[in-house]
Amino acid sequence: RWRVLRLAGDGAVEVCDCAGAWHVGQIRPGSFVLPALTLVRWRPHGARFDRTVLLLPGMVEPDAFRRVRIALRWNP
């Protein structure tokens, strides 16, 4: 469902869906990182409910997966 995920140091997130539409939001509490699984919980601006992006190691390049995991661990 999601094609591109961008995380900023301040907790902002940009997600591009399969139709090519960009959604901007904020990382929410409940995101978590495991060695083989990462869940990014975020809420688009103006939305009522949180959304979740599931990331597995084979879905992205190893360096990008590492950067996402580090960003989520240091996000307040």
Structure commentary:
The chain has 1 helix and 6 strands. With 76 residues, it is an alpha+beta fold. The radius of gyration is 12 Å and the shape is globular. A hairpin with a 4-residue loop joins β2 and β3.
Task: Give a quick summary of the entry.
Helices cover 17% and strands 45% of the residues. By secondary structure, the protein is α+β, with helices and mostly antiparallel strands.
User: What is the tally of beta strands?
Assistant: 6
Major sheet: 6 strands, antiparallel
Shape call: globular
Q: Structural class of the helix and strand makeup?
A: alpha+beta
Strand content: 35-45%
Give the topology.
Elements: E1 2-7, E2 12-17, E3 22-27, E4 32-34, E5 37-44, E6 51-55, H1 62-74
